Amino acid sequence: MKIKSVLIVAIPSVFLTSFVIAQDCDDPTGTWISQSGAKLDIQEINPVTGQLTGNFKSPDSLFQDGPHTGTGYAGNTRQQMASNGFPATASTLSFTVKWPDESISSWNGYCDVKDEVPTITSLWLWVRPNVNKYIEHFNTGHSVFTPYRENNEKPPSIP
After folding, report:
1. In the predicted model, is pLDDT for residue 86 greater than 90?
2. What is the C-alpha separation between 35 and 13, in angstroms, rounded?
3. Three-class SS state of 2
4. Does pLDDT of 139 surpass 70?
5. For residue 9, what is the enclosing H or E element?
6. What span, in angstroms and rounded, lies between the C-alpha atoms of 33 and 53?
7. 4: buried, middle or exposed (CB in 10 Å: 19+, 13-18, 0-12)?
């Protein structure tokens, strides 16, 4: 009788564990959050081409609208490594969003494990069409994304 009750308890915990594991650099599908609170949701990656689709939501302190659909590419994911045969120390990623005001933002970076946390480190470029000065067309910066946990668990701090 005790064995049956142990098995009944053990099976659900193993079953639930498979759904709790967060995205990682080998398979970055899922939601990531930046140090500023922006959310990048990578929904699908084509295993042949590496093209990805997803959504991006700016922090509420910047823009109240969204999320906005985007597209990009992932390189060196688990699916692609099998086809090219080369091991990678980091996965490469790009993601582009067209905003309602016709401006465009692009993030280009890599995913690597830092202090046991999958981390996407990226440079971004925001190009705006309607500005007063030539230099205002371009804005650049960097963002660091870590896996987002919807259970209100605080994301890891990034140095």
Report:
1. no
2. 32
3. helix
4. yes
5. helix 2-20
6. 16
7. exposed
